[in-house]
Structure formats: structure tokens, C-alpha cells
Design goal:
This protein has 604 residues and is of the alpha+beta class. It folds into 2 domains: 5-200, Beta-galactosidase, Chain A, domain 5 (Distorted Sandwich), CATH 2.70.98.40; 210-231 and 265-293 and 340-586 and 596-603, Glycosyltransferase. The chain is 33% helix and 21% strand. Strand 11 and strand 12 form a beta hairpin. The protein is globular and about 75 Å long.
């Protein structure tokens, strides 16, 4: 059985990623891309679906686990009867090919170590041929080919799971390198493990040193920013939502989705966070990716794309995998790619606006794209959509979606008024007014004094907390105060926020059985509103509680189960770390003076 989600560490090289358990087992690894078919998939099944262990052979315990400061070099120390050994794991930056490095270092005494490499291609369904070539193992099947180089000999024997046992003494080290190659390419050349580890450590530290945040939560902010950077596909600029697929939103449930794709919303929110943190180059890379991905008719813009802008992401179920703790089905691809979500137009327009505010050099084709998006939005904003949470039921007039349509128009007006771009600003001002009035007339419940999930409903939706952060209404407006109060009254469990009203009637909206954990990003959004309303101590208390839910390495998943006190949902989750950084900035602004609405800086 896989470990609890919080027991996993995350490694990445900005092309793909791995999850490594506190027991030293690599239980999830996709090569060569984030969305490639996993060669270690024990996370979603069992050891027979692929894993790579590295730990003392006899009785032992975990004595320490940490990232090297401000990097993604992982160190795990095990104490055995005869000493202490350290496993250093790294996905190197700058290597000729995508690879995973594992170095075993002797710290005290002499420790007998054991490593088992259970390579299984295509999410654990294919047992490859494994051939030994001296100290090198070569595993191949179909389009997948991996080489495992080591300083010790693996025993292939009659099994298809090579095993190596060796002893490491204090001051000694033993190296392992797993490298993916296209099947017809020549074998990889030997690498200098120490050099690659040191280089990767330096690259991450140097990048982290440029963080603009200097507040009291710097360690948490930097760890979140490193995680977001590692979820970025550096060759193309796309930003994935999480490193995994099908980690359940409820243990044993069916809300299991593939998040290894580029959501327009999550990518733009990541961009805004990186910009505020001082990383302007990310905006240039993202803009180039977006222009390439959405090229074509505005009506054909997707809510998500593949890493290189692919539009077809067919959803499949992998029946041979039992699912994390029996949570099935296991899915790859995502059917929601075919949905229409009105809010993404607002996020895209806001991202382009922020790029200009932060001095990113203008790109003529970017404004041309925005003009086309505005023409489309003007004709279609009154149509129902699937909403921010990708509801699989009938389309509805989701209030949050309309608010984000207002945001799109507002940012277009700012482009003309503030940056001198050419456009029909007077027409857009009328459109902005019409959307505002429509939302307030149809999406607000005057009796309950709260905005509602969709027009005519009594359900709540925590996404409405974003209305103040985008500038639709001040957080101090009575309608926002009422919405915050309703969320705290009806959507909170142990002070943490659920996404939306979820009961048997919600099945008509999302077409799924009710039940999931509390949604961590929404809880950060609640804190933002409390701070902007002047309820800073209350907000800070919730924020610090959220920080306590991170695992020992500072990582968050999408959701949290207050009953089992465990992280649930895909991991690590970009949206959770985005929200953490944004809230830390909100608290820092308040500490330096009167709380300033993030929307004011967005609108300029």
C-alpha cells in the first residue's frame, strides 16, 4: 500500500517529476514528461506496478528528512543498528537527458543497504526486458527505454525486479542514475553525479534568492515558489496543475482526476504569483506558450491544454490499477478539456494586464489576441457555462463565471486607459456596467445577504470569495461581508472551507456523489478577505493553521480531510501553493500599513 500523501517528497527538473516516500521508495515517476506514462506507479496500485526502493536492509527508522535549503535536492537519513546512511535524491538540471539520481552516503558506522528496481512501463502494465551490461541495466519495452547505472551490481536472476545489496561506511558514497532514452538513441554517457547534484542545488538556490518577498513567512513562500517553478515545463513554458493523477479528493471516492495538464486558470494564477514575487521572465515564457496554445478562433479556446498546447486530452480509466487506497477509477487525460468555462477569459485578460503593470515588453500579437477574446466575450457572456469547478452536470449561469467576465472587460479598459492601447473603451465600459448589474441582480440573495453559486440557486460557492481580490467589489462591501459570513457559517469544517454546498441536490450540478475534503485554496481566499476587512488576527490564525497542514517538507495537496487529518487530492497542488504565497503577501501588506486590496494593484 502507498504511504499517506503527506509522507511523500516531490522532485522535479521542470520537465517531469517524481514522488519519493519517507521510506525511500520512488512510488511515482513519469518519463520523460510530466504527462508521460509512469514507469513507477505503485502510488496508484502496489509494488507490482513499479517502484524503486533504497533503504537499510535490516531494521531501521527514518531519522531525518529535508530539502537542502532553498533547493529541490532531497536528503533522507535512516538509522540502522550499525549506523546511519543518507540517501540524496535529485532530478538534475542541466543533464544531457532526463534522469533521476540517487546517492547513498555513509554518515555513521557501516550500514547494509538494499535497493530493488521494479521498472514497469505504461503505468505498471508492461514488464520490460531487463538486460545487464556490466554494472548497467537496460530496460526496454515498446517506446520506453531506461538505463540504470550504479556503482554496485544488481542481481537480475530469475526475477524481473533487480535487487542490489551493498554496505556503505561513514565517508563513503554509492551512486545510482536512472536515465530515460528514446528506444533507438545510443546509450547515455556516464555522468558526474556529484557535479550534477551540486549544480542543481546551486541553480535552485540562485533562483530562490531572487524572491521579492521578505516577510515573516519567507521560508513557506520560497518553498511554494520552488514547487511552482518545478511544475513548469521549461522547454515550452506550460504550467501543470499538479504532479499526479487520480489522488482522491475523498479516500475511497471517485473524484479522481488527472492534473498533469495546463489549466489556463491555474497557469495564469501561477504567473500572477511569480510576477508579484519578482520573477518577470516567467511572464514572457508563459505569454509565448499561451499565444501558441490558444492560436485560432476565440470560440475554440480550451480551459486546459497539454504541456505543449495539445487540445485533445481523452479521458481513460486504467482498470489494472486499484487506485490510491482503493480509490478508483484511476484516470488519465481529462474530459473537462471539452468544457466551456467563462471565467478563463477573465484570468487570461488579468494575466496580460499584470504583465504590462510589471513592465513586461509589449507583444503586438498579445493585444490582437485580447481584442479577439473581447469580441467573443461580448457576444457570449450571457451564456451558461460549466463553471470554475468543471461541473459535469448541465451548464448553468455560475455567478463566479460572470464576475470573471466582468474582470476581463475591466482589464481591457485598463489596457486602453492606462497603457494607451487601441480599443472601444466606451463600449467596454457599458459592457462592464451591464455585467455588474446582471450579477448583482441575479447572483445575489438579498434575504440571505450572500452571492450564490449560480443564478436562482440557494447554494454557496467559495469561489465567490475571489470577487474582492479581482476588484469586482471591495471586501468591505456589505454584500462581500455577507458572503464571507455565509461561507464561514455554511461551508466551513474545523475552520477550513469546502468548495461549494455539497449534498444530494448538488449531484444535479456536478453529476457526482457528494463528499470530499476541505479545499485548501478556498481557505486561503477566506483569509485574504478577512485581512482586507480588517479582521487580521482572525485571518492570520487561519493562515498559520493552514501552514501547519503542510507536510514536513512544506508541501500541500489540493484538499485536506479534517476527519482523518490527512492531505487528499493531487500532490503537490499548484493552486494551493499559489494561494499560500498570495495570502502571505496580503498579510505583509497589512503589516507594513493599512491593508491594500490586491485588486487595487491589479487595476493600477
Amino acid at each position: 500500500m502507498a504511504l499517506p500523501i503527506e509522507d511523500y517528497a516531490f522532485l522535479g527538473d521542470m520537465q517531469t517529476s517524481a514522488l519519493i516516500g519517507a521510506d525511500g521508495s520512488v512510488d511515482w515517476l513519469c518519463l520523460p514528461r510530466f504527462d508521460s506514462r509512469a514507469c513507477f506507479a505503485a502510488l496508484l496500485g502496489d509494488e507490482g506496478n513499479g517502484r524503486w526502493t533504497m533503504a537499510p536492509a535490516g531494521e531501521h527508522r527514518l531519522s531525518a528528512r529535508r530539502y537542502r535549503s532553498d533547493s529541490l535536492v532531497l536528503e533522507t537519513e535512516f538509522r540502522a543498528a550499525d549506523g546511519v546512511a543518507r540517501v540524496v535524491d535529485c532530478m538534475p538540471i542541466g543533464a544531457h537527458r532526463t534522469c533521476l539520481i540517487r546517492r547513498v552516503e555513509g554518515v555513521e558506522g557501516r550500514v547494509r543497504m538494499r535497493s530493488e528496481a521494479v521498472l514497469r512501463f505504461d503505468y505498471g502494465s508492461i514488464v520490460p526486458w531487463v538486460r545487464r551490461e556490466g554494472l548497467r541495466l537496460h530496460a526496454i519495452a515498446g517506446p520506453d527505454s531506461c538505463y540504470l547505472d550504479s556503482d554496485v551490481e544488481f542481481d537480475v536472476g530469475a526475477t524481473d525486479s533487480p535487487v542490489a545489496e551493498f554496505t556503505v561506511a561513514a565517508g563513503e558514497s554509492v551512486d545510482f542514475v536512472l536515465t530515460w532514452t528514446p528506444p533507438r538513441d545510443p546509450p547515455p554517457e556516464p555522468v558526474n553525479v556529484e557535479t550534477l547534484i551540486d549544480h542543481t542545488d546551486h541553480v535552485w538556490r540562485e533562483w530562490a534568492s531572487r524572491c521579492a518577498y521578505e516577510g515573516e513567512y519567507r521560508d513557506a513562500v520560497v518553498r511554494s515558489l520552488i514547487t511552482l517553478k518545478a511544475l513548469t515545463h521549461s522547454p515550452g513554458g506550460g504550467i501543470i496543475a499538479a504532479a499526479t493523477t487520480s489522488l482522491p479528493e475523498q479516500l475511497g471516492g471517485v473524484r479522481n482526476w488527472d492534473y498533469r495538464h495546463c489549466w489556463i486558470r491555474d497557469a495564469t494564477l501561477t504567473l500572477l504569483t511569480l510576477l508579484e514575487s519578482g520573477y518577470t521572465q516567467a511572464a514572457v515564457n508563459w505569454r509565448e506558450w499561451l499565444l501558441r496554445a490558444v492560436a485560432g478562433e476565440p470560440s475554440q479556446m480550451r480551459i486546459m491544454y497539454g504541456i505543449e498546447g495539445e487540445r485533445r486530452l481523452p479521458e481513460l480509466e486504467l482498470g489494472w490499477l486499484s487506485g490510491y487506497e482503493g480509490s478508483s477509477p484511476v484516470r488519465i487525460g481529462n474530459e473537462a478539456a471539452q468544457q466551456w468555462q467563462l471565467d478563463v477569459y477573465g484570468e487570461v485578460m488579468d494575466a496580460f494586464h499584470q504583465a504590462r503593470v510589471h513592465g513586461i515588453p509589449p507583444e503586438e500579437s498579445a493585444w490582437e489576441l485580447q481584442r479577439h477574446l473581447m469580441d467573443f466575450l461580448e457576444s457570449h457572456w450571457r451564456e451558461p457555462d460549466n463553471g470554475i469547478w468543471e461541473m459535469r452536470g448541465p451548464r448553468r449561469h455560475f455567478t463566479h463565471s460572470k464576475i470573471m467576465a466582468w474582470t476581463a472587460v475591466d482589464r481591457a479598459i485598463s489596457a486602453v486607459d492606462r497603457f494607451g492601447l487601441e480599443g472601444p473603451a466606451d463600449e467596454w465600459r457599458r459592457l462592464r456596467r451591464d455585467i455588474f448589474q446582471d450579477v448583482c441582480a441575479n447572483g445575489y440573495d438579498t434575504e440571505r445577504r450572500t452571492f450564490t453559486q449560480y443564478y436562482g440557486s440557494s447554494s454557496l460557492d467559495a469561489a465567490l470569495l475571489m470577487a474582492s481580490t479581482v476588484g469586482f467589489l471591495p471586501a468591505t462591501d456589505e454584500r462581500m461581508r455577507g458572503t464571507v459570513a455565509a461561507v464561514q457559517r455554511e461551508l466551513c469544517r474545523d475552520g477550513l472551507v469546502q468548495r461549494y454546498s455539497m449534498d444530494e441536490t448538488s449531484r444535479k450540478v456536478d453529476a457526482l456523489p457528494p463528499g470530499e475534503g476541505v479545499f485548501l485554496p478556498c481557505t486561503f481566499w477566506l483569509v485574504d478577505n478577512l485581512v482586507m476587512q480588517g479582521r487580521v488576527d482572525e485571518g492570520r490564525g487561519i493562515f498559520e493553521h493552514l501552514l501547519s497542514l503542510r507536510n514536513d517538507l512544506g508541501l500541500l495537496s489540493e484538499e485536506y480531510d479534517p476527519d482523518t487529518r490527512r492531505l487528499v487530492g493531487n500532490f503537490p497542488q499548484a493552486l494551493s501553493h499559489i494561494a499560500l504565497v498570495n495570502t502571505a503577501f496580503e498579510l505583509e501588506r497589512d503589516r507594513r500599513g493599512p491593508a491594500q486590496r490586491r485588486a487595487e494593484s491589479r487595476n493600477g
